[in-house]
Amino acid sequence: MTIRIATEDDFLEVWGLLQPVFQKGDSYPHPPEMTEEEAFHLWMEVPIATYVAIQDHKPIGTYYIKANQIGLGNHVCNSGYVVSPEARGLGLGRMLCEHSKAQAKALGFLAMQFNFVVSTNTIAVNLWQSCGFSIVGTLPKAFRHLEKGLVDAYVMYHWLE
């Protein structure tokens, strides 16, 4: 398995990873009906860099890095991650997170902040904590979970230096 910069040619398969996650409505605030074009803009054009994990010539995971704020807050980055259902439980999320931390440092960021980690997504919360992130805030009932209704979201932070 390799992790590399994503290209426009990768996006059709990346969209195949993103769309079911967005449609499920349990981990990302993106609208379930988000279009491929909207997702391309948010996942490929807005970030500073987008990466794919490739196995057997096929993307099995992806993440992006972007500045979390403009100007005086631009030393903190933000990232989003998606792993294919077939690759879950194999440590790919951790590999993507560790790769993203190294890339963030190489890009000059000093910290990473996840603005909106859904509290009921315990696998992600536990993974991010094991990768050095701390919950620094709770946003009460900030996420409209499609199955569970209103649930909390966490702000998670990790100083990279």
Automatic annotation (TrEMBL):
The keyword Acetylation does not apply. Pfam families: Acetyltransf_1 (PF00583). Signal peptide: none annotated. Residues 1-161 form the N-acetyltransferase domain. One of its GO terms (molecular function) is acyltransferase activity, transferring groups other than amino-acyl groups. Keywords: Transferase. Coiled coil: none annotated. PROSITE patterns: GNAT. It comes from the Bacteria. The keyword Transferase applies. This is GNAT family N-acetyltransferase. It comes from Desulfuribacillus stibiiarsenatis.
